[in-house]
Amino acid sequence: METRLATTVMIGLGGAFGTLLRYWGGLAALRWSQWLPWGTILINVSGSFAIAFFGTLTASNGRFAASETVRLVFMVGICGGFTTFSSFSLQTLDLLRQGAVLRAMLNIVLSLALCMASVTAGYLTAQALNTAGQPASAQAERPSR
């Protein structure tokens, strides 16, 4: 029970850290975010890359296998606090309520397309690092996921 409580507290602290990163990132992007919420878009894209990159690299068959606790703290805590899908949804609704349908649709398309590209890039980059420096026979044995 103590281990579960400690893990829960660490995830919460990771979430708080991710939330602060999101806040500071949003502030840093304010001057570019007048027409579209670029801060939110960039945070979601980088968070998508980070969660896939870390998750792939630290999986049990990854190059830097990590404990489940470490993975939970980063992926659920930090990335969960950092990414801003709820903010994305609210900002899109606000654009629609303002009658800015084109900008709302652009926000949806850019966010989804860039996050999917980013999560794919994170996964592929980590997979390349997982197999780098291994003999070809070891690479063939390693499952892709």
TrEMBL record:
The chain crosses the membrane at residues 5-24, 36-57, 69-88, 100-124. It catalyses: fluoride(in) = fluoride(out). Na(+) binds at residues 80, 83. This is Fluoride-specific ion channel FluC. The keyword Lipoprotein does not apply. InterPro entries: FluC (IPR003691). The keyword Repeat does not apply. It comes from the Bacteria. It is a multi-pass membrane protein. HAMAP family: FluC. It holds the Pfam family CRCB. Belongs to the fluoride channel Fluc/FEX (TC 1.A.43) family. NCBIfam families: crcB (TIGR00494), PRK14206.1 (NF010802). Na(+) is not transported, but it plays an essential structural role and its presence is essential for fluoride channel function. It is found in: Cell membrane. Fluoride-specific ion channel. Important for reducing fluoride concentration in the cell, thus reducing its toxicity. Keywords: Cell inner membrane, Cell membrane, Ion channel, Ion transport, Membrane, Metal-binding, Sodium, Transmembrane, Transmembrane helix, Transport.
